[in-house]
Write the structure tokens for this entry.
Amino acid sequence: MINVPFLDVQRTYLELSNKIDEAIRRVLRSGRYILGPEVEAFEHEFASYCGVSYCVGVGNGLEALHLVLLSYGIGVGDEVIVPANTYIATWLAVSYSGAVPVPVEPDERTYNIDPGRIEAAITHRTRAIVPVHLYGQPADMDPINAIAARYGLKVIEDAAQAHGARYRGQLVGGLGDAAGFSFYPTKNLGGLGDGGAVVTNDKEVADRVRLLRNYGSQIKYRHDVKGFNSRLDELQAAVLRVKLLYLDDWNDRRRKIAERYVKGLDGVKEVVLPWVPEWSNPVWHLFVIRHPQRDVFREHLSSFGIETMIHYPIPPHKQKAYSDLFSSEEDFSISSRLSKEILSLPIGPQLEDCSVDVVIDRIKSF
Ligand SMILES: *Cc1c(COP(=O)(O)O)cnc(C)c1O
């Protein structure tokens, strides 16, 4: 019996079921299921939300990043700088392009890529940097953009966890050359299935992604490049249009929960709380703490019905999938250590204060 679920996506749906069902019915009856008016409308609405000129809906977040890399002509023989500490999709997007992911260790306080370590990883093959706004907290973009400008690199934001987050007052998605978003159901803006988007102010990239997502075709049965099938579908777009209207409220609710956790857990021995730099306005996709005895600590919470998760238990460089690039001893020591100490507490727009307090009390009783 779980008393405090990690995230209750079903409840999000139920609270909006009238509006979502209506949107779905509208699509079902329209007879347009792929690349129709809903995707087009969502693209306009999401571009406007992010404060950028273009949005292209794609199949998922991984494909968003992949297609951006291809649009910049990045591929075999190239290197792309990625955080050592991220979800594996960031790396896979680079690998699928044919380029090699070059990991850079995080800042231990923000868990995001450490700008101070990027230059040492740059070679004559480096083409781009992909900062991730991990856990919903923006990466430190000014120094990243400055390095990119100095070396002529593209900056591609992995904003899959950070819809609506702000860096020095500016929304993520418009902080680099282009950005990839995911609408996986558990993200801050999530559909009822897979979905993703590329946002950018760069018209050429937007046009290129538009081509690549649809078999390299702009005019039916004319194929200019060897494209993919990676389209946001009408049903997901219609659902996302409903949910986008609530994103800011949901993010505000996440901020309130985070504040409550921070207040309630301040000074608790051995618990390391998230650190928010003054230039950051995060959207708390995850609320990640650290504990030196993470596994027993997690077991303790679990015995009281509190569901927690680990994001992520094995860093990409230690995954079997990347054993071709990194031998198991090869050590990104900060990322490796963090993966053993981090724990994500329940957070989501539907989590109630009383549940947050239960979590706080059980943490204190450890
Ligand atoms: C979820 C996620 C992705 C991939 O998104 P999908 O839609 O699942 O393909 C990429 N990067 C990060 C950091 C993510 O959290």
